[in-house]
Give the backbone structure.
Amino acid sequence: MMDEMDKERIQELVQAGVDGELDAEGRQRLAALLDESAEARALHEDLERLKAFIDRAPELPVPDSLHDAIVRGVTLPSPPAWKRWLRFSELPGFVRYGMAGAAAMVLTVVVYQAGEQLDPAQGYDDLVGTIAASGPDARKVDEVKFGSADARGEARLLAKPEGYALAVDLDLAAPTELAITLPGEAYRFNAFAQGADSLSAVSWSGNRLTATADGKQRFVVLLSESTGDPSPGEITLSLSRNGTVLLAGALDPSTARD
Amino acid sequence: MGKDQDQALIEDCRNGDRRALGSLVRRYERPIYNAAYRMLGTADEAADVAQTTFLKAFENLHRYNPQYKFFSWIYRIAVNESINQLNRRKRLDELGDNEVASGPGPDATFDADQVSEELQKALMTLTQDHRAVIVLRHFTEISYREIGEILQIPEKTVKSRLFSARKAMKAQLERKGYTP
């Protein structure tokens, strides 16, 4: 017979096991206890069944209007004056476009200077005025749209005389990892420019570009063919959060050859 | 939940960045709403409490100590707001229809919505203290230590309270004909 103290210790150990609160040593003690005590086994089974029952209850959806109601109701401190100047979306249109153009030019120049495989002779001046990668010489090849409760956007692949432009628009509710993967060695990254807000932790190596994005983002990646492979495969784009892929899409450049 | 990401968003909120506010709200609105619903049992009150929770959290952002996790802080506000709401409500008639064994019996199967409904009825028969530990443990999946921080009770008390709450919950479900 267990005395009260034993009973309490057993309850605590069994419950902690069910709740995943035990370390390796605790799990060993629990396994030994379950081996030797029918009472502990019965308690363990009871708690597991109750937990399983509760876990079957679905998570309740948040009412549609709640997010906006909360955000509208919250008053934040005014940002410092210098930050207000940088709040892009609140600036007049002509200032916004001018700044976007200037930012794109600076970024493109930086990229040209930084990357070994970049070729200034190809001239991407049009990127300055065409953050969305459009223009009279651009032809849409493929596009993918995606949307979920907290991640929306689209990616358009445009064929341009000097290669391809991949224009991406994102609207994300939380920081999200972005990855663009080129098929094999068929293409290479040539330049990168971004619009109003900035991606963070942008890096590319080989055929993969990664970055962290949040909120509304717009950027353009310029690609050029490197091998002339007639069927190199698709360009993939994925969004993930905490290691879980939220959305993934593929763009096929092959139709541009038709 | 990423503590560093929360801290960065909070810092941006302190600088007046409404986009950071949107991200922070998006991150916690669902668990806060769900916890409030399980504490209160009605969607309207849960939405009110969720809204009040965020308003109070941002009004008092200057009091938030970044040494602690943001979610511990905001859950504490949510639990307290839920309890305040319960206290404002007229005391429930615990001897009403809910006491009648009207469940489907031990061998019946039931879908997730039925489970949710029966679970809610059982939760509402628990004391506020018992309900809070069950809700925090099962619907927000946080550790004993964090529950202790939120409810401001020792971890040892969390364990014993959780055990008693589960026992009461099981008994209630069994009275209604469920055998969890």
